[in-house]
Amino acid sequence: MKLKQLLIAVGTLAAVSFSQSAIASEGNGAALKHAEIDVTDQAQIRRGLTVFTDVCMGCHSATYITYKGLMDYPEIGLTREEVDELRGDHAITEGIRTELSPEDAASSYGKVPPDLSLIVAARRGGANYIYSLLTGFENDPDGKIPEGNYNKYFPGHRIAMPDPLAWLDHEPEDTAQLEKDAHDVSAFLAFIGDPHQNERRVIGCWVMGFLLLLTLVLWRLKVEVWKDVKKH
Amino acid sequence: MLNTIMKTKLFGWVDRRTGAADIIKSQLTEYPAPKNLNYMWNFGSLALLVLVLQILTGVFLAMYYKPSAEFTYISYTVAFDSVERIMRDVNFGWLIRYMHAVGASAFFVVVYMHIGRGLYYGSYKEPRELLWIIGVVILLIMQGAAFFGYLLPWGQMSFWGATVITNLFGALPVIGESLQEILRGGFAVGDPTLNRFFSLHYLFPLLLVAIVGGHIHALHVVHSNNPEGIDLTKDEEKIMFHPYYTVKDAFGVAVFLLFYCYFVFFNPQAWGYFIEVDNYVPANNLSTPAHIAPVWYLTPWYTILRSFESKLLGVVMMGASLAILFALPFLDRSKVRSARYRPVFKWMVILFFVDVVILGYCGHSAPTPTLKLIGQITTAYYFAFFILLLVVPKFEEKFLKPVPEGI
User: Fold this and answer.
1) Confidence band of A18 (pLDDT split at 50, 70, 90)
2) Residues A168 and A215 in one domain
3) Among residues A137, B57, B68, B176, which is most buried (max CB within 10 A)?
4) pLDDT for residue B304 is more than 70
5) Would the CB atoms of A208 and B261 count as touching at under 8 Å?
6) What integer pLDDT is reported at residue A9 of this predicted model?
């Protein structure tokens, strides 16, 4: 009987979470593309940082990542010289912020570009969504939304951000490079959303290992203590 | 080990002044418990463990958290900012915060299992009615504490969740509007709301500790129910709580920690169930999220609320759905406790569990006409379950299985 109950419960939960994740991965009708990212890969995160400072930072900030953080997080690990070159006159404790003022952004694009510190955590689909979005600029099949403002993956399809990687109408031979840039910057954004995530997973493995042992020991102890209790 | 400690001179000194030895004997080493409790009886001690974890992690979070909706950077508020500082700059702040956030959901998982066990095996029946009622009070305070806590990160879901829920109180006649203003500390959710919710989020767990003390005291007066649901009269049917159940509970704790730590270290957002995606977006009173839903543990009641066209009726029925739990011991007058010997009740209660899961699913999802209908049907069954219990004991008599004399 207990087994049956358990099966019902597990079955229902599985159905619920499956349908939920199906909804989550759908994005906005279009299934998201899979982003090939590795948040432990220093080379990829550094390439992503370059894409971020060269392209994204024209409009977006990542307030919670400081210039000092670019040195201190081993996943980025820039040298003091590299950071000094990047920051110019900015204090080393400042977050990496765009020069574009919110007022100018609002008058040029109609809205203030969001801070990207937490963007991967703040969007359904996470890094997959960011990657899909960057490589999702197309011409509106209905011809209503102006060129450059139509994105297959954006909710409602009309996006204020103008095609940052110039994906629209790019030459076929550039596809690989653009996809690489999109992957790299997705990896960078996924990393900065939770910069202690690699440390967390490493510690987590030790914790789980310890707990498995503890569980085993306590299970044997329980069996030992209970062996004189007669079954009814 | 406990015996060795109790023989020391120091313990003797303490004992002569506090009667500690008598307490240990009456509550642990000579406290009799049924020997046939199954693993469903582990969730009470787990709930106590999570309560302690929540309080400890919460105390440390409060050392760094700042309850203010004032702005620091462009689009970041002091409260949101302080949470990110905890996540990024405080040593192991990420661990404390994820333990607290995952702990909130873990608390409800173990408490819902605990309540489900009580329902299935008839632990609310005579002589444990008050024990059950104190438990329902604990559930309500927990839900309050969770609701207050969810506002604190001051993300979009914090803000709009609090807006929707405080709005409900406005639907009540006469006192509604002023009650809503008192809760919010103004006409809309804002800085004063955040401050008072922080204060209440600290107060409610203290209430919980006191009432949990009462719950355990009440338990130790009437003693544990058991899967057979019968009164145990013979000594050989019982074993001492210590060491038998202390070691079994310890094993349960280890298994629980395996699941808990998996989420803390590898999946703290739990696919958006424990920390919702929209809560990583700072609160913005000018932009409503596409879909506002409470965290999973409140969604069954949210569905009941949404199942009624009239807002007032929805609020009343949501309140009733919780209040009816208080009445359960008096609705179900069957002399047989355990569902094992009540086949009709057994299927009713299993259906009830499934029903609550579906209610939760409907409350979590964006509303569609189909889901609304499913929500209304499951809401109807939620109440029907309790109302039917008035007549089921009489109806089910000829189906009852023979209850054993002992174990």
Assistant:
1) very low
2) no
3) A137
4) yes
5) yes
6) 55
- How many angstroms separate the CA of residue A200 from the nearest CA in chain B? 6
Read off the tokens for B334: 């069957």
Residue A60 domain boundaries: 23-195
Distance CA B273, CA A176 (A): 36
- Measured over the CA atoms of residue A157, residue A161, residue A165 and residue A171, the dihedral's sign is positive
Q: How far is B376 from chain A (nearest CA, A)?
A: 18
The reply to whether B12 falls in a domain is no
Give dist(CA A209, CA B261) in Å, integer: 11
Do A21 and A81 contact (CB within 8 A), yes or no? no
Q: What is the pLDDT of residues A156-190, one digit of tens each?
A: 999 999 999 999 989 999 999 999 999 999 999 99
pLDDT, tens digit, 9 for 90 and up, residues B153-191: 999 999 999 999 999 889 899 999 999 999 999 999 999
Tokens 């939760």 sit on residue: B360
Question: CB–CB of A64 and B269 under 8 A?
Answer: no
Contact call for B76 and A211, based on CB within 8 A: no
Same domain for B357 and B250, yes or no, is: no
Q: Residue A21 has what pLDDT?
A: 46
**List of chain B residues whose C-beta atoms are within 8 Å of the C-beta of residue A121:** 269, 277, 280
Tens of pLDDT, residues B234-250: 999 999 999 999 999 99
ipTM of the predicted structure?
0.92
CB pairs under 8 A between A and B: 119
pLDDT 10s digits, B322-364: 999 999 999 999 999 999 999 999 999 999 999 999 999 999 9
Contacts 24+ apart (CB under 8 A), B368-372: B372/B306, B372/B307
Rg from Cα positions in chain B = 23
Q: What range defines the domain where residue B267 resides? A: 30-288
Q: Nearest by CB to A124, from B95, B248, B277: name it.
A: B277
Q: Is the dihedral of CA B347, B349, B350, B356 positive or negative?
A: positive
Q: Do B290 and A155 touch (CB under 8 A)?
A: yes
Distance in angstroms (rounded) separating the CA atoms of residues B39 and A172: 62
Of A194, A200, A218, the CB nearest to B254: A218
Q: Kindly state whether residues A37 and A128 are assigned to the same domain.
A: yes
Q: How many CB atoms lie within 10 A of CB A170?
A: 15
Partners of residue A193 in chain B, C-beta under 8 Å: 280
Residue A15 belongs to a domain: no
Looking at the whole model, is its pTM more than 0.90?
yes
The rounded distance, in Å, linking the Cα atoms of B368 and B30 is: 57
Q: Which position has the token pair 């009624």?
A: B308
Contact B247 A222 (CB under 8 A): yes
Q: Quick one: B108 and B197 in the same domain?
A: yes
pLDDT at A22: 44
The first and second tokens of residue B272, run together, are 């958006």
Closest CA to B247 of A8, A231, A221, A161: A221
The Cα of A50 is separated from the nearest Cα of chain B by a number of Å equal to: 22
